[in-house]
TrEMBL record:
Protein name: U-box domain-containing protein
Matching SUPFAM superfamilies: ARM repeat, RING/U-box
Keyword Transferase in record: yes
MF (Gene Ontology): ubiquitin protein ligase activity
Origin species: Psophocarpus tetragonolobus (Winged bean)
């Protein structure tokens, strides 16, 4: 502690106590102090700045977030960080951290600590930090560390902790620049590891992988990756399992399925993988907050003949859809529900009969009197006409 105290940069010391600034605040004179120290000074009746001795025309204090951030970096990075030149020290620090991650001699613990520091620096979205991460190609390195390793890592708790943190960093770095490095996941062995992690990983790992899928669907440059993932029957099966059996991750799994569903070429694979039944189970549970998005997935998939057959054969599927037609607390589902009912009722007599028995006519009339969109009302009228005929 004494050694650490002696190495505190002058910029990070409170002028009153000479200790490390814990909560830096600035006076109207531009001088910065630790909040507790300057508040005691002012409470004692002093109306001057302790350093300049200027009279304070405004006694208010303002948090110094920039200095607080620099101190946090110094605490995390230690001697690697130079407060006099934070930009130079940032790129030097990142280069050093990258060498640690790349080195075959570095222990897993050292690499884990390096990742912690990377996570801290990636949390700062200043243009310089962004440039450093891009120049040093951190995203390809982290993807290799997570998906390019032996499958035995999955069974090790320490390796799983490392993978969790690496995936957190990947999520942050994806936001900083090009998504093209994600295409590395298409490689056979990396794809195998991706699927294995989705099957056996922790909830945190599964959540991160779902977000990687979302990212892959957001750019034309990673469309092939999205297609590869969407056509993996094992991945689709695992996503459906998570949607129905894991409340902690189900919301992110719904988003991942929606991302895969954005590609027409993936939809047949999603249907074969049980997406229709999985989504209907999710919707019928009535305790989910992603129901509107889930309904939009059904709306997209039901354009396939195979999906229509599966949907009408699912127990009480029409009643589930009818329940979505008009709900005061969740009107976002109405248009999707009406669209899906239009599709299946137009082709299956028993679907029309079940819809009428489930009270769809009353719900449609209520919907027409509500504040829903004109598009929804137009589709509701079409469905009413179909059912009455």
């Amino acid at each position: 502690m004494n050694e650490s105290h002696n190495t505190i940069p002058f910029l990070f010391r409170c002028p009153i106590s000479l200790d490390l600034l814990e909560d830096p605040v600035t006076l109207c004179t531009g001088q910065t102090y630790d909040r507790s120290n300057i508040e005691k000074w002012l409470a004692a009746g002093n109306l001057t700045c302790p350093v300049t001795m200027q009279k304070l025309h405004d006694p208010s204090i303002v948090p110094n977030h920039t200095l607080r951030h620099l101190i946090d970096q110094w605490l995390q990075l230690g001697p690697l960080f130079d407060p006099a030149n934070p930009e130079t020290s940032t790129i030097d620090s990142l280069a050093s951290l990258k060498r640690t991650l790349e080195s075959h001699e570095s222990s897993l613990e050292n690499k884990f600590q390096a990742l912690k520091k990377i996570y801290l620096l990636s949390d700062d979205y200043c243009s310089f930090n962004k440039s450093c991460f891009l120049q040093l190609d951190f995203l390809p390195l982290l993807l290799e560390l997570v998906f390019g390793r032996a499958e035995t890592h999955v069974s090790s708790k320490n390796h799983m902790n490392f993978i969790e943190l690496a995936l957190f960093c990947i999520q942050k770095l994806v936001l900083l620049g090009s998504l093209e490095p994600l295409n590395a996941i298409k490689d056979g062995s990396k794809l195998v590891t991706f699927l294995l992690l989705f099957e056996k990983g922790t909830d945190s790992v599964k959540t991160s992988l779902c977000r990687v899928i979302e990212s892959a669907s957001s750019s034309s440059k990673t469309e092939d990756l999205c297609c590869t993932l969407g056509n993996s029957s094992k991945l689709v099966h695992e996503i459906v399992q998570v949607i129905n059996k894991n409340d902690e991750v189900s919301g992110d799994a719904i988003k991942a399925m929606s991302a895969l569903c954005s590609l027409q070429s993936n939809r047949e694979s999603l249907v074969r993988g049980g997406a229709i039944n999985g989504i209907l189970r999710y919707i019928s549970s009535e305790r989910r907050n992603m129901t509107p998005l889930a309904m939009r997935i059904v709306e997209k998939l039901v354009g396939l003949e195979s999906a229509k057959e599966i949907l009408v054969n699912y127990p009480n599927s029409v009643q589930i859809l009818v329940n979505m037609v008009f709900r005061v607390s969740n009107q976002e589902c109405s248009e999707s529900a009406v669209e899906v009912l239009l599709t299946v009722c137009g082709e299956f007599v028993r679907a029309r009969e079940e819809a009428i028995e489930s009270g769809v006519l009353t719900r449609l009339l209520l919907l027409l009197q509500s504040q829903c969109s004109n598009t929804t009302k137009s589709k509701a009228r079409m469905l009413l006409k179909l059912l009455r005929s």
